[in-house]
Request: fold
Amino acid sequence: MKNLTILGSTGSIGVSTLEIVAAHPEKFRVVALTAGKNLDLLLQQIAAFSPQLVAVKNEALALKLQEMLPDNRTAIMHGVAGMIAAATAPDTNMVVAAIVGAAGLVPTAAAIEAGKDIALANKETLVTAGRLIMDMVKARGVKLYPVDSEHSAVFQSLQGHRKEDVRRIILTASGGPFLNLSAEKLGQVTVTDALNHPNWSMGQKITIDSASMMNKGLEVIEARWLFDMPAEKIAVNIHPQSIIHSMVEYTDGCVMAQLGTPDMKAPIAYALTYPGRVPTGVKPLDLTSLSGLTFFQPDSVRFPALQLAYRAMGDGESMPTVMNAANEVAVAAFLSGRIKFTDIARAIEKAMDLHDPRTLDSIEDVLDIDQWSREKCSELLKHF
Ligand code: NAD
Ligand code: MG
Reply:
């Protein structure tokens, strides 16, 4: 029996995780759930899974939830302290980290410190504090399993092989909704256009990141830390059909790939049940029904965000922190209609140019730099 805490249970990954849990009640028990603001969905989840503890974003929401809850069997907490309590609940042995953004860092770090195994969806944790987090994972002897589909594919393609035989990791990218749009048209796309991802249904922030290719930049950094690979051994191929989820190329020229219908339930389940597998309800892959699988190089002129991630990794340890925070601010500004789509990468680059990179000392240090970058980027955006 795996006892789970799900951080971000009302999000896209959280909901898919609970679908897997519901399908395998003999394998999983829910100890704690955390949500931002969606109290209606959280109430349904409490009724279905009877967690000991739930945490919501702030006190007002916690009070409201208390009024809505028919009984007192579930403890209600709030804020960062509540997220940490859920992440470190004594009965939990695995934490699904599915909060979006750098807000996931502190609870995920607390779970690792408390010795919990992690199923990691929140890639921003590794982007913003990769070395510190991997050091904590090693020191505490916990297991960190990727949920991100590309990293799950790499993880699966590495099974039974030796790391020293790896020549490259090749992450695939769908290219998003604007893959074939001209540079000029990219400046005019709407929020609705950007939220219309061709292959995956996901939360808003990652959907915009996918459209700008920043998602792939974040994933290159995530892969760098998860698999302890230098940036120059991590390549990106555009693969619009999202059937090959990523690949590992070995020194003898052999390439291992993982394929499947694009559905996050497959990588989520693998992280929860590794090394075993369980039925997920994911539509079986019928290669004969596909018209073809295509691959090409990303266009760094129309989609500069991917190159910003490679630059950040080369610049120094604090630069990915700055890039990640600036991206969160710029994406929020785009979503609220304040800036153009092409301004996202422009704002991030400007924030990065203003930063003097250095080594990261602690999680508190990461939070300080994250805050600095948010303020800088917000200031910059006033002049856009
Ligand atoms: P989402 O927006 O659908 O859900 C985010 C969850 O986090 C929600 O439960 C929300 O209430 C909660 N949350 C947001 N801000 C919070 C805060 N400040 N404090 C506490 N809780 C907060 O996002 P998602 O698409 O499920 O993505 C979650 C994470 O998984 C992201 O890091 C994303 O990059 C990663 N991921 C998602 C997918 C996908 O298919 N959705 C695939 C790969 C990786
Ligand atoms: Mg991914």
